[in-house]
């Protein structure tokens, strides 16, 4: 049996939805507003926010105990903190964790600026830190007291704030008038469009060692089945493809057909999206 190559780690795809999300974050940052972002599970909210904040780089740097020589130069331009709301947390802990995350960003930015500084230019410093936008993922977890803590950080820091969560978060937040009155923008993070699914499929197809010929009836039918099953949801696409690879390997098949897709679908537990 020929082993299929393991699907490589998926590169981040700049989608239309990601561009809209970036615009929304920039607006919250510029106007120092609170923005609410909601979207179905698996559409890519977390990954987009981490990517926008370039948080992987900052986190990796912090974990390396700040070896300044290893800081990527583009971190100097970072102004966003990405924070995941904890499941349970006292207001004090939350406040400390938020401060710590802001501190991490400021350290990373200052080290990157210092690395870029020449003997004639002193590295720039900001007493108040470099955070201009705070993105809180899984904001649905925050209850009233935690939201008060977040609001306090927002007010004191004069920063923009983005709260991300499941659809309905905008209604839940409306129950807290003090917070809600500061909301400037609401953003719906939508699933991928059909054209984008096609584009991503074309990439995956090659990852699976297959070629897509949409002119071919079987492939057009297969594409349609995948689009219908996943409904533009990134996580479902990924999981469906993992199953497709499995079905191909088990059955020693070389081409993805509608039957293969249907068989792969059978082994997925698909919730209502
Ligand atoms: N732009 C992208 N490029 C490549 N892969 C992506 C992209 N966005 C999302 N994905 C893939 O989809 C999966 C789900 O994305 P993510 O965790 O960001 O969704 P989410 O909207 O935060 O879901 P949840 O509401 O369950 O937290 C990711 O693990 C990732 O592999
Ligand atoms: Mg998420």
Could you give a quick summary of the protein structure above?
It is built from 11 helices and 5 strands; from the N terminus they run αβααβαβαβααβαααα. The protein is α/β, with parallel strands linked by helices and 273 residues long.
If you had to describe this structure to a student in words, what would you say it looks like?
It contains 11 helices and 5 strands; from the N terminus they run H-E-H-H-E-H-E-H-E-H-H-E-H-H-H-H. Helices cover 50% and strands 10% of the residues. It has 2 domains: 16-188, Rossmann fold (3-Layer(aba) Sandwich); 194-266, Helicase, Ruva Protein, domain 3 (Orthogonal Bundle), CATH 1.10.8. The structure holds adenosine-5'-triphosphate (ATP) and magnesium ion.
Uncertain segments are 1-8
Q: State the total count of DSSP E strands.
A: 5
| Spatial separation of the terminal alpha carbons | 36 Å
Tally of structural domains: 2
Topology overview:
Blueprint: H1 16-31, E1 34-38, H2 45-53, H3 55-63, E2 80-84, H4 91-116, E3 133-137, H5 144-157, E4 160-165, H6 169-173, H7 177-180, E5 183-188, H8 194-207, H9 217-230, H10 234-250, H11 258-266
The protein binds adenosine-5'-triphosphate (ATP) and magnesium ion (MG).
């Amino acid at each position: 049996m020929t082993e299929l190559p393991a699907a490589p780690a998926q590169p981040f795809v700049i989608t239309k939805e990601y561009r809209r999300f970036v615009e929304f974050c920039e607006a919250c940052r510029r106007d120092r507003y609170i923005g609410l972002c909601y979207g179905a599970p698996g559409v890519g909210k977390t990954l987009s926010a981490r990517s926008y904040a370039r948080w992987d780089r900052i986190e990796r740097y912090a974990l390396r105990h700040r070896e300044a020589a290893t800081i990527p130069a583009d971190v100097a331009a970072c102004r966003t903190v990405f924070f995941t709301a904890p499941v349970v947390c006292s207001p004090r802990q939350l406040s400390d964790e938020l401060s710590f995350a802001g501190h991490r960003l400021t350290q990373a930015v200052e080290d990157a600026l210092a690395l870029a500084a020449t003997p004639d230019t002193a590295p720039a410093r900001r007493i108040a830190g470099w955070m201009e936008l705070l993105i809180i993922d899984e904001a649905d977890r925050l209850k009233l007291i935690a939201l008060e803590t977040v609001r306090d950080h927002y007010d004191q820091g004069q920063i923009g704030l983005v709260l991300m969560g499941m659809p309905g978060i905008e209604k839940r937040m409306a129950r807290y008038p003090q917070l809600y009155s500061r909301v400037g923008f609401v953003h719906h993070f939508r699933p991928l469009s059909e054209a984008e699914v096609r584009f991503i499929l074309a990439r995956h197809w090659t990852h699976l060692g297959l070629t897509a010929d949409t002119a071919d009836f079987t492939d057009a039918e297969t594409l349609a089945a995948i689009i219908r099953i996943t409904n533009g949801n990134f996580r479902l696409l990924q999981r469906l493809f993992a199953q497709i690879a499995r079905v191909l390997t088990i059955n020693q098949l070389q081409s993805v057909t509608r039957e293969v897709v249907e068989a792969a679908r059978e082994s997925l537990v698909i919730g209502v999206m």
